[in-house]
Recover the amino acids of this structure.
């Protein structure tokens, strides 16, 4: 959980909170896609 929060704060510093929130919500889809490709 700590890397997710760290990534969120880094994105907020670089962009803004709305972009960070969108990336946080679509993160699980990247995990599902990765698992689909590798399995």
């Amino acid at each position: 959980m700590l890397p997710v929060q760290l990534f969120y704060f880094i994105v907020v510093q670089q962009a803004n909170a709305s972009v960070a929130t969108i990336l946080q919500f679509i993160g699980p889809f990247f995990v599902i896609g990765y698992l689909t490709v590798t399995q």
In short: The mean pLDDT is 88. Residues 1-38 form one domain.
